[in-house]
Amino acid sequence: VALLAALSGSWVLALLAAVAIGILAGLARLMASTTVYTLTDQRVVMRIGIVLTVTYNLPLKHLDAAHLLPLSGSQGEIALQLRGDTRIAYLHLWPHARPWLFARPQPMLRGLADAQAVSRLLSEAWAAVNAQAARPQAAAHTPPSIDLQPQRNAA
Question: Using the 8-state DSSP alphabet, how is residue 134 labeled?
Answer without folding.
Answer: -
